[in-house]
Amino acid sequence: MSSMMKGTTDNGLLLPVPDEDGQPFWDFAARGELRVQGCTGCRRLRFPPRPCCPHCRSFAAEWRRMSGRGRIWSYVLPHPPLLPGYADLAPYNVIVVELADARGIRLVGNLVAHPDAPLGSADPAGLRIGAPVEVAFTEIAPGVTVPRWLLERP
After folding, report:
1. Number of domains the chain is built from
2. Are 147 and 109 spatial neighbours (Cβ–Cβ below 8 Å)?
3. pTM for the whole thing?
4. Which long-range contacts (CB under 8 A, 24 or more apart) does 100-103 make?
5. 71 and 61, same structural domain?
6. SS (H, E, C) 101-118
7. Are residues 81 and 27 in the same domain?
8. Residue 6 lies in a domain
9. Do both 53 and 79 map to the same domain?
10. Using alpha carbons only, how large is the chain's radius of gyration in Å?
11. What is the DSSP string of the chain?
């Protein structure tokens, strides 16, 4: 069994393991689009994706394109890394981004210096609650693209 089948890259980094409800999120990310599941009944957005709207209990959903802009809602610099594959990347950040056009929708990711930069490439001094960020998509393994975040330039 290859490491890709176990949910990690060849260097030990974790890969997303999409379920049926979340697979469209990753399919859109592979196309460079940030989309969030929305209810076609009550029109409210929901994340993480799930089959039933928690607000009106409708099973009707669509995937709405987001602007890709947001603000850092929270962050952490894990010391020491909990997984061996991340040890050489420390210190790196994990951020929670609240989307600008979907208040209350928050995504977990990493702040990086540029789209293809490794984890830990962003200066930790730039991390602050409320800092504006924009999405960038990075292929971390063949066929696996994840959203990462860049500080917006003034």
Report:
1. 2
2. yes
3. 0.89
4. 100/67, 100/69, 100/70, 100/71, 101/66, 101/67, 101/69, 102/36, 102/45, 102/47, 102/66
5. no
6. CCCCCEEEECECCCCCCC
7. no
8. no
9. no
10. 16
11. --GGGGTB-TTS-B-----TTTHHHHHHHHTT--EEEEETTT--EESS--SS-TTT----EEEEEP-SEEEEEEEE--SS-SSGGGGGG-S--EEEEEETTSTT-EEEE-B-SSTTPPTT-S-GGG--TT-EEEEEEEEEETTEEEEEEEEPP-
Q: What is the pLDDT of residues 6-65, one digit of tens each?
A: 576 665 678 999 999 999 999 999 999 999 999 999 999 999 999 999 999 999 999 999
Q: Is 136 in the same domain as 123?
A: yes
Same domain membership, residue 119 and residue 141: yes
Assigned token pair, 117: 């930069």
Q: What is the pLDDT of residues 23-33, one digit of tens each?
A: 999 999 999 99
Rounded CA-CA distance 35/54 in Å is 18
**Domain span at 88:** 67-154
Q: Does the residue 36 lie in any domain?
A: yes
The two three-digit tokens of residue 140, written as one number: 């971390």
Phi-psi region of 57 (alpha: psi -120 to 50; beta: other; left: phi over 0): left
Both 74 and 140 in one domain: the answer is: yes
